Amino acid sequence: MAEELIPIVMFISIAVVLALVFYFKYRARHDMQATIRAAIKQGQELSPDIVDRLAHPKKGKDQDLRYAIMWLALAGALSLTGFFVPDPSGHAFSGTLAGAAFPLCIGIAYLIMWRFTERAQ
Question: Is this structure's pTM higher than 0.85?
Fold first, then answer.
């Protein structure tokens, strides 16, 4: 019985995380529009430049580094999970290493992007 619940819980948790991400993006846009409406209601002039800056905030200069650290930490966590799983055949470790390769590559790509954008500025 418990074995059938594992994939169900996994897919439900992925769906919940995605729903929360979309919800908070929606809330941020809604709050930004409410701020613009309140400013217009008070009679303040909003230039297109101000509206554009409110609608599209600048990305932090170290945002790529933060993403890289998160992806690399996820890859490390997956690797450690496979290492600590008691599996005498050793297949769990190789399986989690294969799964950790994907976030590892994404983390390395973000590190490269952070390094090149740092030098370009």
Answer: no
